[in-house]
Amino acid sequence: MNKILKLTIVLFLVCAVVAGVLGVVNELTYETIEEQNRIKTERAYAAVLPSDGYEEVAFDEEANPTIDAISKCTNGAGYVVMTTFSGSQGKITLAVGVDNDYKCTGISVISHSETSGLGANAASTAEVGVNWRAQFVGQDDTVALTKNGGSIDALSGATITSRSITGAVSTAIKAVESLG
Amino acid sequence: MNIKKQFKEGLITNNPVLVQLIGMCATMAITTTLFNGVGMGLSVLVILTCCNVVVSAIRKIIPNEIRLAIFVVIIAGFVTIVDLLLQAYIPALSDALGVFIPLIVVNCIIIGRAEAFCQKNTVGASFFDGIFQGLGYTLVLIVMCVFRELVGSGRFGGGLIDITNGFRITMDGTGAGIQLFPSDYGATIMTLPFGGFITLGLLIAIMQYALKKSAKKKEAQEMADKEGEE
Amino acid sequence: MLTNIISISLGAILINNFIFSQFLGCCPFLGCSSKVETATGMGLAVVFVMGLASAICWVIDQYLLVALHLEFLQTLAFILVIAALVQFVEMFLKKSVPSLYSALGIYLPLITTNCAVLGVVLLNVQNDYNFLESLVYGITGGLGFMLAIVLFASVRERTEFSDYPECFEGFPICLVSAGLLALAFMGFSGMQIF
User: Fold this and answer.
1) How far are the Cα atoms of A165, B52, B65, B123, B207 from residue B57, in angstroms, in the given order?
2) Whose CB among B36, C111, C173, C179 lies 3.0–4.6 Å from B198's, allowing a Cys bridge?
3) Chain centre to alpha carbon of residue A77
């Protein structure tokens, strides 16, 4: 019995020390991580619709469960919509810029877990990704893939990713329209 | 202390992936761009070296019955530290590798080295073992990344190298790499899971071929020596 | 709700198969697949542990780690829970269901270091699944693993007798056949789930 008690105490001590060290590291990095996340969101916002500031506005969360937030540009250029939805592999988080004529001004993928080399190209900084995202500029809420009668070419080998992003852009524009 | 021998073992003759055949999940999963490969390799190198040092330092005071549990706790600790640091300072890498960073905890390389090497060796030897085994792992990742990226999309150094404004190394994963031929001519299949399995299979086969050949050569040499003596 | 569950299940078993598309659990996949019988045993053990681990870790994450803002301890807590869970399951089966223990017994200790188990728990957190979704993802992810390993074992039983270059002996030929299976599984990736 004594032996078990000793083993338990040793294991407990090791865990406590490790947890303590992690607590310190977490404390040290916490603010930087928050800052990084903020910068990332800010960059995405600026990439889809530049403005000197963004103000979150209230929207109908019941009717738009996939939309995380809608922010109004303080320079009056329009709105940026943050939306999280299912792609082909997991959740995709996307920023969509919408101007005052309810046209898309650009999209930026913030996080995703799509297949590398196929769906992941939607977020790629290489030419293929940039060109693909550029197709969305100027689209309205009827945006659709060419297969479905629209004008967006699907990424090769990633129809599902392309379709879900296209759908999310349409939903985002509709949500801004419903703001009035 | 035989650093030279350890170096050769870690990188070639006892390479963790190609010879010990451990830690393969991440090897196949993340080797799609050079940025991912180098990042993952270096993360494992750092974690492995730290764990090796700590485990060998406390090897005499931990009770034998619960040593594996203690190793796992120590490894999980270092993995979380690296995970937090990456999130704070290289967020692009943390995004790209995703769940494979915390999964280093169950990467057999680290617990395998702790169990097989650090338990019996001094802190210094374990330190070098960590570095060389880590380098061996990184080397395999780099070879796989370069091959898969080149064949798959005609690119070299994706995420890590940018040549639009002169050559520079990008630490934030934004570099477009060097396009050696248009990506439309690439075999996209190599960047998919299939490519991971096949590339690693070929690499291990080449390794086995080379090791066998050098063993045969040695044998022939010994035979020749014997005959010479007679 | 139901469509959500169905889409998670189909996704975990076929489209995002743990082995063939996410590379989680490759070590036991390659190590325990020389015979269909052992592969089935390993597969069942993984389904069992992945389901249990998903459920228990979800509770711990929600009511202990998130509640106390200790999210940074997730990896540490999960791996300890999994290790302890595997031990308990082993002891429990030995005492009360000896027939199941004799079938799964030898595979259980190996599961602690199976990255599919830790992987599923971490993915549950990453995808913000609720309790039911986590449980379903765990069980169906395990079923996907089992499907993969049993299919692969039957392939391997055949490659034993085939003629391949000498240097491909052992792991390389396994990896090549696994790659071909992964290619077959890619066919599911075009499936659209509503």
Assistant:
1) 52, 8, 18, 6, 34
2) C179
3) 21
Touching subunits of A (3+ CB pairs, under 8 Å) are B, C
For the segment A97-113, the average pLDDT, to the nearest whole number, is 88
For chain B, say whether C113 makes contact (Cβ under 8 Å).
yes
* pLDDT at site B230: 64
- Decide: A50 and A27 in contact? Cβ < 8 Å: no
Q: Residue B135: its pLDDT value, please?
A: 94
* Residue type (1 letter), A71: S
Q: What is the pTM of this model?
A: 0.87
Give me the numbers of helices (H) and strands (E) for chain A, helices first please: 3, 5
- On chain B, the residues whose CB falls within 8 A of the CB of A29 are 84-85, 87-88
Query: Which of helix, strand or coil describes residue B230?
Result: coil
The pLDDT tens digits for B8-42 are 888 888 888 888 888 888 888 888 888 889 999 99
Q: Looking at the complex, report in whole angstroms how far the Cα of residue C189 sits from the nearest Cα belonging to chain A.
A: 8
**Tokens of residue B214, six digits:** 């050098």
Give the minimum alpha-carbon distance from B59 to chain C in angstroms, rounded to a whole number: 21
Roughly what angle, to the nearest 10 degrees, separates helices B34-57 and B123-153? 170
Which of B70, B73, B52 lies closest to B61 in space, CA to CA?
B70
Distance (Å) from the alpha carbon of B65 to chain A's nearest alpha carbon: 8
Q: In the numeric block, which tokens belong to residue C44?
A: 């069942």
Rounded (10°) angle between helices B67-89 and C74-96:
150
**Are A129 and A121 within 8 A, CB to CB?**
yes
